[in-house]
Amino acid sequence: MNQKIKNILAICIGVIPVYFILIWYRLTHDEVFTIFDMLAYPLIIGGANILLIIALNKYLLKEKINNFSCGKGKWYWDILIGLILAGIYFLLMYIEQATVARILPQGKPTSQEVINLMIGLANNPFLLAIWLGPVVWIGVAVFEELGRVFFLNCLWRLSKNKYLELTAVIFVAFFWGFAHLYQGAFGIISVGIQGLVMGLYYYKYRRIWPLIISHALYDSIQVIMFVAQVT
């Protein structure tokens, strides 16, 4: 099979289905997720998709696992850059809240379930530990960033043209933003901008761990700040 066709097939199997199913479910179901749902689903869905992407990368594309982080770098630089990127995300969030949020609606389908989750975590240290541990790191950060990097790598193998590669960065960023359609226009733009920063970093340095670390820290710090306010 042609290598380009393999990369397109890999995207169609490993990336697109899970996100379109999530979008479809959110748009067609009004029920609010329970705390158990919010803890279990990321681990089940995210964990399964991580294994699927790794399998596709190895057996369909014949790529090594280290191609997700093939750029030069050390683990301590990954941690430091992860911290810096997380700080950039918070700065962007502050700017967006002061500008875009005043113009566009943020959407409300997830507001109640997020509130319920935060209150539940604040009242149960065990659930908080699960959320800040495997859920955020595996079910959210690794799941999303591995999917992002896998998507980008597959698209980049279709053409070595620099401008098409940068176009792929923009496309993938707002594909991820569109996956948050249930949050409204603000959610799409906010997640898209954050994804653009991640994509540009990966385009330049080809290191996945700073993306995972920054994503996990960004989500974790927001949860910790909320829990600190209600306890």
Encode the helix/strand succession as letters. Answer: HHHHHHHHH
Output mean pLDDT: 89
- β-sheet strand percentage: under 5%
Number of domains: 1
What global shape is seen?
A: globular
Whole-number radius of gyration? 18 Å
Helix content: over 70%
Q: How many helices in DSSP terms?
A: 9
Distance between the termini: 58 Å
Largest pleated sheet: none
Low-confidence stretches: none
Number of strands: 0
Description:
The termini are far apart. The model has no long low-confidence stretch (mean pLDDT 89). The protein has 231 residues and is an all-alpha fold. The protein has nine helices and no strands. The protein has helices at residues 3-14, 16-28, 35-60, 75-98, 111-123, 125-156, 162-178, 184-205, 209-230. Helix 3 packs parallel to helix 6 (125-156), helix 4 (75-98) packs across helix 9 (209-230) and helix 6 (125-156) packs antiparallel against helix 7. The protein has one domain.
Describe the protein's topology.
Elements: H1 3-14, H2 16-28, H3 35-60, H4 75-98, H5 111-123, H6 125-156, H7 162-178, H8 184-205, H9 209-230
Task: Give a brief description.
By secondary structure, the protein is mainly alpha-helical. The protein has helices at residues 3-14, 16-28, 35-60, 75-98, 111-123, 125-156, 162-178, 184-205, 209-230. The chain is globular, with a radius of gyration of 18 Å.
Notable features of this structure?
9 helices; 78% helix; single chain; 231 residues
